[in-house]
Amino acid sequence: MSEWTPICHVEDIPVLGSRRVARTQGLDVAVFRNDANEVFALLDHCPHKGGPLSQGIVFGTSVACPLHNWTIGLCTGQAAAPDAGCTPKFAVKVEGAQVSLKTVELASHAIDQTRPVAGPKSGCAAS
Q1: pLDDT digits over 73-100, tens only?
Q2: Which end of the chain has fewer CB atoms at under 10 Å, N or C?
């Protein structure tokens, strides 16, 4: 198995935007690109209420969660003060235009986290 998994090309990630990478277990990984063409990867999950960071606004080396506007550092996954919390980060390698994520992290990093499922609670009877 290769140490790095090719994900996409830098140009495939919108400037000041992101691209989601699906995994077989756990939540997706969000791969971000800022206006300096730097690439970062975080679990697509805000530490506050689980918002999809991939839908947030990228500025500098941060992303604003689309749910409650928490600022999350793209380098560390850490929420900016006064907020507190952290989302897992993933190692990124850019060679030429190719963006790759560390294979072992994709397979094992933060795979225990899941998104809540919307809808009626299991076992509830309809009226």
Answers
A1: 999 999 999 999 999 999 999 999 999 9
A2: C
- The percentage of residues in the chain with a pLDDT greater than 90, rounded to a whole number, is 80
Full strand arrangement of the beta sheet holding 29-33: 17-21, 29-33, 39-43
**Is 120 a member of any domain?**
no
CA distance 104 to 71: 27
What is the domain extent for residue 34? 4-108
122 located within any domain: no
Among 65, 66, 61, 7, CA closest to 37: 61
d(CA 28, CA 110): 10
